[in-house]
Write a structure and sequence with these properties.
The chain is an alpha+beta fold. 28% of the residues lie in helices and 20% in strands.
């Protein structure tokens, strides 16, 4: 009977300690999410204005890279999460530049044409949270195509061109999409900014 009382006292003490720890954790917890979305910590970035999948990413900076000293389809970030060594120039994007670029990449109007057989990207975009890569895209304006670390819904779904009303199916950049990417690339003074005529 004495052993049973000691065992009951130990269990009661353990249950009490577990509850105290749980209450302390809950008192210190805060939520920074809005409507179930992770916040963007990038100052000035308007997360709610971004299309999927960018409206759910938690990042605090965006960097554009001019890279690629070969034509073999090297991505800006490799499978181990390392930045490609052929970076020529880089520019940390402002919140406005980031928002604009992500709106372009997530817009159905950016896609709809075919792609070239080649893939030689020279424009890279990497979103970071601290030092960790959250998202990356390797863009080849000349090949009319990009590869990214996550699916971009606007690329893979048939959609209607907002200007012509024509249904588009291709993953390649539309004329507007290509123009927008060429303009961004040129404004950054990067190389390989001209696509196909």
């Amino acid at each position: 009977m004495k052993n049973l009382c000691i065992l009951a006292a130990i269990l009661l003490l353990l249950a009490s300690c577990h509850k105290d720890k749980q209450d302390t954790f809950n008192k210190g917890a805060t939520t920074d999410t809005v409507a179930g979305q992770k916040p963007s910590l990038m100052p000035g970035a308007d997360l709610a204005a971004l299309p999927p999948p960018f409206n759910t990413l938690d990042f605090d900076r965006a960097v554009a890279y001019d890279y690629g000293d070969s034509y073999d389809g090297v991505l800006i970030v490799d499978k181990e999460g390392r930045l490609d060594k052929s970076v020529l120039r880089q520019k940390e994007l402002t919140a406005a530049e980031t928002t604009n670029l992500l709106k372009v990449l997530g817009s159905p109007g950016t896609y709809g044409n075919g792609v070239s057989d080649c893939f030689a990207p020279h424009l890279g975009l990497v979103l970071y949270k601290g030092r960790d890569v959250v998202f990356h895209a390797s863009i080849c304006i000349a090949c009319n195509y990009l590869k990214s670390s996550m699916a971009i819904p606007a690329m893979v779904r048939p959609h209607t061109d907002p200007k012509t009303g024509k249904e588009l199916f291709g993953e390649g950049f539309s004329r507007d999409g290509q123009h927008n990417l060429e303009t961004l690339c040129s404004s950054l003074k990067f190389s390989h900014c001209i696509g196909q005529p």
